[in-house]
Design goal:
177 residues; alpha+beta; two-stranded antiparallel sheet; 12% strand; elongated
Amino acid sequence: MIHIEIDDRQIRSFMKSSPKRAEWAMSEALKMAGGHIRKDLKAYIEAGLSGMKPLHPVTVAGKKGKTTPLYNLAKAISFKYGKSKGALRVRIGWIKKGLPVIVKRALYGRKQRVTEKIRSMFHHRGYHLRKTTKMLTTPERPALTTFWNRKEKEIPRYVEKRFFEKFFSKQRANLRF
């Protein structure tokens, strides 16, 4: 799990002076950050996980239509906003309970026995396995770690900027407290 700290002393002073508006502005800023970062993560995954081991030609040959081979993996990315222990939070990534199988395979790698069905699939895509090949290895691709290492410095500034934009906007807060 990735945890990012934000120096929020200035924001906390606004929380004390106008708590309802500040909470609304922070929730809007976190929702905006969740959507923005989710979109960036989807684009990063669809682009083929730059900096990671390349996809096997059989995977690339198996793509359908105009989508990239990692399209379905990126399609499953979402964000979830909520309160946890009194703190506003946003979670970004694969939110469903447990990681989908395709995510586990793509990110953490795996070893797989070669069956006749897999041998046939490789053959139809133009890559012939030797008869002595008994196992296939999918390499580990630590995409999330790489992505967060690139993004973690931008996130606090993004949230702070959006907080102040919302806090000082003329837009009325939909306050239901």
